[in-house]
C-alpha cells in the first residue's frame, strides 16, 4: 500500500506500508513531518526505513527530525547522493538492491540525471516512486549542480521505458495534471518519454 502525502509547496512524500505486518518505509521527508507521523500512528505502523530518492533539501530536510522521533528507522540512499546529505545513510543502495518492508519487496533503480545518485523505487512490481527523475508529463530538471541532460535521457530510455506499463508512477512533485498515473499512459503522453533521440530530448522546452 502507498499513501501519497502532499507536503511543503508542491512536494510529495510517501508512506509505503504492509498492513498485515504493520511495517512501513517513508520516502522523501522534506516537509510536514507531522503528516507522516500521523499516518504511521493512525495505522499503527512501525517505521523501518527512511528512503531518500536524492539529496535535495526539499526531499530530505525532515530526515533527522523523523529519525529523532523513530531512532530505529534506517536512512537509505545511494552512495553518490548519500555523500551529499547532511546525515550519514545507514544503508547505501546500488542498482538492483532490494529491501523488505513487511511482505512488500522494494527494488532500487539507480536513475541519475537530475542528481548523480538519484534512485527510483519499485514497489512489488506495482508502483514506481520516481522522486525527481520522472514527473507526470515531464522529467526532473538537469540544469542544477550535478544534473546532466544526456544522463537523464539514458536513464529514461534504459531504466524507465523498459518497465511494465501497468506500474503506477508516484512522482516527487505535484507538477502534472494528476498526482499519479500509469507508466503506460506516461509512455504515450509524457514528452520526455516520447523523445526518441538525445537531439529530440534536448529540444524539449
Ligand atoms: Fe530535486
Write up what this structure looks like.
The relative contact order is 0.14. The chain has helices at 33-42, 57-60, 63-69, 79-82, 149-160, 183-189, 191-194, 198-203, and strands spanning 2-7, 11-18, 23-27, 46-51, 74-78, 91-93, 98-101, 104-110, 119-123, 127-131, 134-135, 138-139, 168-171, 181-182. The protein is globular, with a radius of gyration of 16 Å. It contains eight helices and 14 strands. It has 205 residues and is an alpha/beta fold. 26% of the residues lie in helices and 31% in strands. The strands form three sheets. The chain has a six-stranded mixed sheet with strand order 1-2-3-4-5-6. The chain starts with a strand and ends with a helix. Bound molecules: fe (ii) ion (FE2). Residues 54, 56, 114, 132 line the site of fe (ii) ion (FE2).
How many β-strand runs? 14
The major sheet is characterized as: 6 strands, mixed
Rg, Å, rounded = 16 Å
**What small-molecule ligands were found?**
fe (ii) ion
Order of helices and strands: EEEHEHHEHEEEEEEEHEEHHH
What would you call the shape? Answer: globular
This entry's quaternary arrangement is single chain
In short:
With 205 residues, the chain is an alpha/beta fold. Helix content is 26%, strand content 31%. It has 8 helices and 14 strands.
Sum up the structure in keywords:
globular; alpha/beta; 205 residues; binds fe (ii) ion; six-stranded mixed beta sheet; 8 helices; single chain
Amino acid at each position: 500500500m502507498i499513501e501519497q502525502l502532499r507536503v511543503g509547496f508542491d512536494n510529495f512524500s510517501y508512506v509505503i506500508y504492509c498492513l498485515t505486518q504493520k511495517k512501513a518505509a517513508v520516502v522523501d521527508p522534506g516537509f510536514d513531518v507531522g503528516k507522516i507521523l500521523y499516518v504511521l500512528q493512525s495505522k499503527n505502523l512501525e517505521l523501518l526505513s527512511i528512503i531518500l530518492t536524492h539529496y535535495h533539501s526539499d526531499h530530505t530536510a525532515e530526515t533527522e527530525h523523523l529519525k529523532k522521533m523513530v531512532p530505529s528507522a534506517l536512512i537509505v540512499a545511494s552512495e553518490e547522493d548519500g555523500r551529499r546529505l547532511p546525515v550519514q545513510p545507514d544503508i547505501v543502495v546500488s542498482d538492483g538492491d532490494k529491501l523488505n518492508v513487511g511482505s512488500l519487496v522494494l527494488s532500487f533503480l539507480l536513475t541519475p540525471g537530475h542528481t548523480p545518485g538519484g534512485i527510483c523505487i519499485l514497489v512489488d512490481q506495482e508502483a514506481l516512486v520516481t522522486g525527481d527523475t520522472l514527473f507526470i508529463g515531464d522529467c526532473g530538471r538537469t540544469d542544477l549542480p550535478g544534473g546532466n541532460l544526456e544522463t537523464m535521457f539514458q536513464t529514461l530510455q534504459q531504466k524507465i521505458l523498459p518497465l511494465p506499463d501497468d506500474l503506477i508512477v508516484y512522482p516527487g512533485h505535484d507538477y502534472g495534471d494528476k498526482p499519479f498515473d500509469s507508466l503506460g499512459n506516461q509512455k504515450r503522453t509524457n514528452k520526455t518519454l516520447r523523445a526518441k533521440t538525445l537531439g529530440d530530448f534536448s529540444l524539449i522546452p
